[in-house]
């Protein structure tokens, strides 16, 4: 009898200590479906942009993302992105993404031939001002000990 009670107690504790990781939360299907399609980043803004350079997603300067093309496929959470701006390094990559119930946009930039489950690093941004033809992704960065919002404005292509 003690063993049964002990096993039940352990089972309850295991379920009570469930992870609250952003990657284990339920997805916001409505928000994801609204992002389906081809998009272009029309602007990247943040306070102090005339003085501070931001290396977005550890890929390139944030200004290089203006004009970049993004494709979001909502039924399998895959897509791709490409930087094509003149005087910037050309970059193209498959991505995997989803929006959780907390309005967080989870993004992984993948290397060719590597599956998303093998990629351990990603980015958590926040979805804002979502309409049929536009939305914003907001990244929080530390600038001199102060958290600053970097706003990526997406327009439907």
**Quick one: biggest sheet?**
8 strands, antiparallel, barrel
CATH hierarchy class name: Mainly Beta
| DSSP, total strands | 10
- Rg over alpha carbons: 19 Å
- Reading the helices and strands in chain order gives HHEEEEEEEEEE
In total, the number of domains comes to: 1
Uncertain residue segments: 3-22
Number of helices: 2
Distance between the termini: 65 Å
Task: List the topology elements.
Layout: H1 2-16, H2 29-35, E1 37-45, E2 55-56, E3 60-61, E4 69-73, E5 78-83, E6 91-99, E7 104-109, E8 123-128, E9 134-143, E10 146-156
Antiparallel strand pairs: 1-4, 1-10, 2-3, 4-5, 5-6, 6-7, 7-8, 8-9, 9-10
Q: What features would you describe in this structure?
A:
The protein is mainly β and 157 residues long. It has a single domain (25-156), classed as Lipocalin, CATH 2.40.128. The protein has 2 helices and 10 strands. The chain has helices at residues 2-16, 29-35; strands at residues 37-45, 55-56, 60-61, 69-73, 78-83, 91-99, 104-109, 123-128, 134-143, 146-156. The strands form 2 sheets. It has an 8-stranded antiparallel barrel. The chain has a two-stranded antiparallel ribbon with strand order 2-3. Strand 4 and strand 5 form a beta hairpin. Mean pLDDT is 81; it is low at 3-22.
């Amino acid at each position: 009898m003690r063993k049964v009670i002990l096993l039940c107690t352990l089972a309850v504790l295991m379920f009570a200590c469930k992870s609250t990781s952003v990657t284990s939360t339920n997805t916001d299907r409505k928000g994801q479906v609204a992002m389906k399609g081809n998009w272009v980043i029309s602007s990247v803004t943040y306070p102090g942009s005339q003085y501070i350079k931001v290396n977005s997603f550890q890929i390139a300067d944030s200004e290089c993302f203006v004009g970049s093309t993004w494709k979001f496929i909502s039924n399998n959470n895959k897509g791709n992105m490409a930087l094509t701006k003149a005087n910037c390094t050309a970059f193209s990559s498959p991505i995997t993404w989803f929006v959780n119930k907390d309005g967080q946009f989870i993004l992984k930039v993948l290397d060719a031939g590597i599956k998303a489950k093998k990629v351990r690093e990603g980015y958590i941004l926040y979805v804002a001002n979502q309409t049929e033809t536009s939305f914003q992704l907001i990244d929080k960065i530390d600038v001199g000990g102060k958290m600053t919002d970097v706003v990526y404005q997406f327009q439907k292509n």
